[in-house]
């Protein structure tokens, strides 16, 4: 493998880096890391380590930390460097810059300043997860990390309920169980989904099933590592109040309210909260 050290055109070069396996980096990405005048990295230690693995010396070139907590002045400095004729390689800690990282403001400011912006495509956790999920990829909505506030999360899931696209969500491993319960209640227990963990790494794992099945599976499971949750689109079948009441009446005659709600929510692919409220109304408890 030959790494080319050739002059790069001035501008901001967004470089995708591996999400796990170091060998997933592209030859073009290595060329840019070897040739750029400036390295701007979400984590400079990670960037230095990646370059060392592939035999690229930083030398006397500046390595500037640029992440979501960086002051606006750091971004302005990078844009100014590029405007004055330098090539700036921008790398996230892992994956493609601008996918859930601070790349977008840098690109926006560079373009506004008349600075050229380039992309060196490559690894992406979103695309890797979509590939192995088994869910439809013709229409996809990337949501990134959901808000932490309960009200904002509830509003987001309500907005996503009618969206006919595969949803891609990044989440902290500590909140995966909570996320799956929220999605099951808002989108329907029968929606197909997948939980992808540690993609391209040693302990890679992909769990597939319905939201109800995955919510149950992860309720008692400690999760570690990088997580991507995907939810397939619904069936698009409209279920009226009469259909729901009829299904609930039959299910309630066979068992408890809890069992009836679970059965009907799965059969009609409806949010459990909606079915539970309808059951309470039928039983005269609301």
Automatic annotation (TrEMBL):
Xref: InterPro entries: 4pyrrol_Mease, 4pyrrol_Methylase_sf, 4pyrrole_Mease_sub1, 4pyrrole_Mease_sub2, rRNA_ssu_MeTfrase_I, RsmI_HTH
Is-annotated flag, keyword S-adenosyl-L-methionine?
yes
Please tell me where this protein is predominantly located: cytoplasm
Instruction: List UniProt keywords, sorted A-Z.
Output: Cytoplasm, Methyltransferase, rRNA processing, S-adenosyl-L-methionine, Transferase
GO (cellular component) term, any one: cytoplasm
Q: Indicate the segments forming the Tetrapyrrole methylase domain, all copies.
A: 12-215
Catalysed reactions, semicolon-separated: cytidine(1402) in 16S rRNA + S-adenosyl-L-methionine = 2'-O-methylcytidine(1402) in 16S rRNA + S-adenosyl-L-homocysteine + H(+)
Please name the CDD domains in this protein's record. Answer: RsmI
First-tier enzyme category under EC: transferase
Name the domain of life. Bacteria
E.C. designation(s): 2.1.1.198
Q: Where does the record place the RsmI HTH domain?
A: 240-282
For this protein, the record's Pfam families field holds: RsmI_C (PF23016), TP_methylase (PF00590)
GO molecular function of the protein, one example?
A: rRNA (cytosine-2'-O-)-methyltransferase activity
Cell compartments where the protein resides: Cytoplasm
> Could you tell me what this protein does?
Catalyzes the 2'-O-methylation of the ribose of cytidine 1402 (C1402) in 16S rRNA.
Name the protein family: Belongs to the methyltransferase superfamily. RsmI family.
Full protein name: Ribosomal RNA small subunit methyltransferase I
Protein species of origin: Rhodovulum adriaticum (Rhodopseudomonas adriatica)
Recite the lineage of the species: Bacteria, Pseudomonadati, Pseudomonadota, Alphaproteobacteria, Rhodobacterales
